Amino acid sequence: MAKVIGVDSSTQSCKVVVRDADTGALLAAGRSSHPDGSEVDPRHWWDALQAALAQAGGLQDVAAVSIAGQQHGMVALDAAGRVIRPALLWNDTRSAAAAADLIAEVGAADYVARTGVVPVASFTATKLRWLHDFEPDNAARVAAVCLPHDWLTWRLRGYGPTGESALGPVLEELVTDRSDASGTAYWSPATGDYDRDLLIRALGHDAILPRVLGPDESVQGPGFLVGPGAGDNAAAALGLDARPGDVGVSLGTSGTVFAATTTQVADPSGIVAGFADATGGILPLVCTLNAARVLDVVAGLLGVSHDELGALALQAEPGAGGAVLVPYFEGERTPNLPDATASLAGLTLANTTRTNLARAAIEGMLCGLAAGLDAIRAAGVETTRILLIGGAAANPGVQAIAGQVFDLPVHIPAPGEYVADGAARQAAWVLTGQRPAWPVDLAGSPAPDHRPVIATQYAQAAAGYR
Question: Which pLDDT score is estimated for 176?
Answer without folding.
Answer: 98
